From TrEMBL:
It comes from Kribbella lupini. It is a multi-pass membrane protein. SUPFAM superfamilies: MFS general substrate transporter. The chain crosses the membrane at residues 58-84, 90-110, 122-138, 144-161, 182-204, 210-230, 275-298, 310-328, 340-356, 394-415, 427-445. Keywords: Cell membrane, Membrane, Transmembrane, Transmembrane helix, Transport. PROSITE patterns: MFS (PS50850), SUGAR_TRANSPORT_1 (PS00216). This is MFS transporter. Residues 57-450 form the Major facilitator superfamily (MFS) profile domain. It is found in: Cell membrane.
Length: 454
């Protein structure tokens, strides 16, 4: 326990100085956890926070996830490993990766449910351990059927730790500071991604299976950091109360009394129209993102470029995300303007990718689509977390996170089939057109999500 923390009546650590800025009674800090977000929250917040204001819990989680990210380079290589190491055809590879994606859907839902019931820390450790077991199984497989089963297990464990990770950050940060907090997570993972890309480029010259061994080791290392350093899980019925203390938010007396008795209003997550709309939009983005992850290595293979090129692309993407972090703090850019800019940059990068024939041009394209991802990833998370009441945040983020499970199911099929039917140009130009359409309809999304700002 540090000087900045204290113990509550049940022995759990809580910050002695929950917030370095006074709550605004008319802004997001003063609203009820079940009321819609205000303009200063997810839907219309302007990032301007400082990393120094973030809770120690955020920093611990960011450190742990960065350790994991150093070895998290296997997914872009999974299709290549199935094709090169196990002799799978392009159609078989696409099918196996699609099943992997489908398996991540219940994985994400389970992670959200466990985050709100079992606890954030325990759920993160469980998910990371499951990923490590599956990665080692893939590395030790000697036949395609064994690697396919291990891939399914990896999918079932792959998303468990995401909802509790995202919910933990949202639990201990003000809505206006969440873009900064998620940006810090992105920056740290990008920094680790530089090492990951270079390590992947080096290891890929040898047996690609060693990539999965390295990933398993970093998963276990991350689990150990989380288990030892992250604050102990609180009782599920008291999560909202402790989170409010950590953020220094004032609550109405009647509502506080209800939480003290462990009474929380029931939340029909699937009936929140705004969340479902956000899920649909996020799914399209996640599909474009996953097509990049899956399609870039296969495109390099089609162009006759070395497998190590994927590692360099990952490293350049990570460096771009680090150097461009200050763009997240530009005032006057709310969620919708940021998302429109992000889709515009993503579309530009995809067009360049469509006509790339050398690693240099692929790296130029990487800078463009990475800048787009920077805006999109942080803003979508900010919107989703802002819609959720404190005691249901894990479930809200899990439902929104289904976009990645759906995308990981769809993208292997669309990427491989478009590559087969239309070549790299067809795949990336179609993706660029989709991104351009999403950029153009952000004013419509603003109107549809307007009730969240009332």
């Amino acid at each position: 326990m540090t000087d900045d923390t204290a113990l509550d009546s049940h022995g759990d650590e809580i910050p002695a100085h929950p917030s370095r800025s006074a709550p605004n009674s008319t802004g997001a800090a003063g609203r009820s956890p079940t009321s819609p977000p205000t303009p200063s929250s997810a839907v219309a917040s302007a990032p301007g926070g400082s990393w120094r204001r973030l809770s120690p819990t955020v920093w611990i989680l960011v450190l742990a996830r960065a350790v994991n990210k150093i070895g998290a380079f296997t997914l872009p290589f999974l299709g290549v490993v199935l094709t090169v190491e196990f002799g799978a055809s392009l159609a078989q590879t696409g099918l196996i990766l699609a099943v992997f994606g489908a398996a991540t859907i219940p994985s994400r839902l389970l992670g959200g449910q466990l985050a709100d019931s079992l606890g954030r820390r325990r759920t993160i450790v469980l998910g990371l351990t499951g990923c490590a077991v599956a990665q080692l199984w893939i590395a030790l497989s000697d036949a395609l059927w064994s690697a396919a089963l291990a891939t399914v297990l990896l999918g079932l464990a792959f998303e468990i730790y995401e909802p509790p990770s995202q919910a933990t950050i949202a639990d201990v940060t003000e809505p206006a500071d969440r873009p900064t907090a998620y940006g810090l997570l992105g920056a740290a993972m990008a920094a680790a991604g530089v090492l990951a890309g270079l390590l992947a480029a080096a290891v890929s010259h040898f047996d690609l299976r060693w990539l999965f061994v390295a990933d398993a080791i970093t998963c276990l290392a991350c689990a150990i950091v989380v288990a030892l350093a992250l604050p102990a899980d609180r009782r599920a019925r008291r999560t909202a109360t402790i989170a409010a203390v950590e953020r220094g938010r004032s609550r109405a007396a009647g509502s506080a009394a209800d939480r003290g008795r462990g009474v929380e209003p029931k939340v029909a997550v699937w009936r929140d129209r705004r969340l479902l709309l956000l899920l649909a939009s996020g799914t399209v983005f996640a599909t474009l993102y996953m097509q990049l992850i899956i399609g870039i290595p296969l495109t390099l293979l089609d162009q006759g470029l070395p497998e190590s090129g994927t590692g360099f692309i990952l490293a350049v993407s990570a460096v771009t995300l680090i150097l461009a972090q200050r763009l997240l703090r530009v005032r006057g850019l709310d969620d919708f303007r940021s998302i429109a800019i992000g889709y515009g940059l993503l579309a530009a990068g995809l067009v360049v990718t469509a006509f790339a024939h050398s690693l240099t041009v692929f790296l130029l394209a990487t800078v463009l689509w990475s800048l787009g991802d920077l805006f999109l990833l942080t803003r979508y998370l900010t919107q989703a977390s802002g819609l959720a009441p404190d005691h249901a945040r894990g479930r809200y983020l899990a439902v929104f996170g289904l976009s990645w499970g759906i995308a990981t199911t769809i993208a292997p099929l669309t990427a491989t089939q478009l590559l087969k039917a239309a070549g790299p140009e067809g795949l990336w130009l179609a993706s660029a057109a989709t991104a351009a359409v999403l950029a153009s309809i952000q004013p419509w999304f603003r109107k549809q999500l307007a009730p969240a700002a009332r």
